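I am writing to request your help with a piece of structural work I have in hand. The matter concerns a single protein, recorded as an amino acid sequence and a row of backbone structure tokens. Could you please explain, in whatever detail you think fit, how the structure tokens follow from the sequence? Thank you for your consideration; the sequence and its tokens are set out here:
>
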Amino acid sequence: MNPGDHSRNTSTSILTKFTRASAPFISTFLLVHLSAPLLANVGGSSLSSNVMLLGREYYQTPFREKYLLLTPLAIHVASGLAHRLLTPSSKQPRKATSTLSLAAYSALIFVPIHFFTHRLAPTNTAPPSSPSDRRNWTTSSSRRV
């Protein structure tokens, strides 16, 4: 056995533990986050709004969002990608084109966009880029003064 193989096996074992340890945090968040739209089909928009407000109490605080969602998500993605890079292609547990892998790679694209449009962009105080929206923004902001 090559000495490099032992360190690679140790590294992939540690990365697997990081990936598995972060998964329950992400699963809990997804359960809370997706329950409102799912319950809208059963109880309508009022039930959906109530569940959404309760869910936001769970994860939209500065501490919880940072340490119970974003940190585990970053750990999960980084350890998963590092594991994929360190594992020889002949020993990888699944192909990069498997359904699970494709879902994960597409999430790498869409989750940051979703986070930006729903959490970061709404807090931006810059005027809108569209001239018609800018006119309304100026009018509404001048009324607040």
